[in-house]
Amino acid sequence: MWNNFGKQLYDNIIANDRWLMYLEGLGNTVIMTLCAAVIGIIIGMLVAICKVNAKESRNPLMKVLNVICDIYLTVIRGTPMMVQLLIFAWVIFTSVPISQLLWVGILAFGINSGAYAAEIIRSGIQAVNKGQMEAGRSLGMSKGLTMRKIILPQAVKNILPALGNEAITLLKETSISCYLAITDITYVATMIRSRTFSPVPLLTIAVIYLAIVMLMTFGLRKLERRLSKSER
Fold it and tell me: What's the pTM?
């Protein structure tokens, strides 16, 4: 392998404009990660708020919603991501053409991420002192407004590292979308490797994933430091 490593690099990255294939795959990977992360955070926030409010509410509707949330969390966290992805593609959305499977993957990853984000956000909300809610209500603010303006901003500061780790995990999990023939960067690497029989494509995407994770980690640390400064 190492004797002609330079030629392998050329054949697997430069030749036949294969670097454009890597770029296309990287673009789809980033799109899947970002869109799924947004969906996951929205679902996670709704589920977390529902579960927190259900403990103090006597409204039967809230109790029903709490049961639905518990079922959602149990099913999603209790089954493998790969199985969920295959069920979404080949059971729920069987009529979707292969060219549109990217959006099926985004939905599957987003719903999966939402279950983990929900528990992270719920723990962050519960970590905020209960006196904050009482203080907001004493100022004449509604419960919803107090949650949105006082509780959630403080909770986000506490859970930012955990949410960042979930985003990094989500990025790496998108690599299994290649099983649906979604043209992500892993699918591109395996396709090129099947033509050149070289390990270079796999090493290339490993470096790309590592670079993205390091960039995300750097950004999260910068954001954490900025938030800590504003807190002081």
Answer: 0.88
For residues 118 and 77, the answer to whether their CB atoms sit within 8 Å is no
CA-closest candidate to residue 113, choices 220, 227, 34:
34
Domains of the chain: 2-231 (1.10.3720.10)
Please answer whether residues 9 and 22 qualify as being in contact, where contact means their C-beta atoms are separated by less than 8 angstroms.
Answer: no
- Amino acid identity for residue 160 in this structure: L
Provide the terminal-to-terminal Cα distance of the chain, rounded to the nearest Å. 55
Separation CA 1–CA 3 (nearest Å)? 6
Q: What is the pLDDT along the chain (232 residues), one digit of tens a residue?
A: 566 777 777 777 888 888 899 999 999 999 999 999 999 999 998 998 888 887 776 777 888 888 999 999 999 999 999 999 999 989 998 888 888 899 999 999 999 999 999 999 888 887 777 777 777 777 777 777 777 777 777 777 788 888 889 999 999 999 999 888 888 999 999 998 888 888 889 999 999 999 999 999 999 888 878 777 655 5
What would the two tokens of residue 60 be? Answer: 């039967």
32 closest CA partner among 87, 136, 127, 107: 107
Comparing C-alpha atoms, which of 230, 35, 6, 48 is closest to residue 152?
48
State how far the Cα of 23 lies from the Cα of 32, in Å rounded to an integer: 14
Distance (Å, rounded) from C-alpha 110 to C-alpha 203?
A: 28
The span from the CA of 149 to the CA of 146, in Å, is: 5
